[in-house]
Amino acid sequence: MNTKEHLAKIKTVAAKHYLAPEETDAAMAAVSPDVVYHGPAGLPKTLESWKQRHERFVTSFGDMESTILFQVAEGDLVFTYWTMKATHKGPFLGIPATGKRVIMTGVGIDRIAGDKVVEHWGLQDMMGVVGQIGGTPVPEPPRVG
Predict the structure, then answer these.
(1) In the CATH hierarchy, which top-level class contains the domain 3-132?
(2) pLDDT cut 90: percent of the chain above it
């Protein structure tokens, strides 16, 4: 496989996660069970931790529509810049459901091995989401590692 084919392949693997936001199993289908998840400080760096955080978000928001704005790949890394539109359907960070439609932006960096994401870093504009549903934005804890 030449470099161009390799980069196209790893972009496709990474995209699987971002394009299935409401279905945790589908969103995590291309993620290795041994993934190293670089989430907020203090969370375990495991697939189960990532899934739990994802499920908490899905419980709070529905009617999700994700769009990949662009991806850049180099070596075994893929950078993905995305947006997601969703409806606030359940409590989120102490804010009861508002029924408001929100737009969240985020970035992810995924290390790909074979057909799986084996390492993930991600940042989402949670403060922007909180502001859109009428809350006072409070930043997430810093990410370490």
Answers:
(1) alpha beta
(2) 59
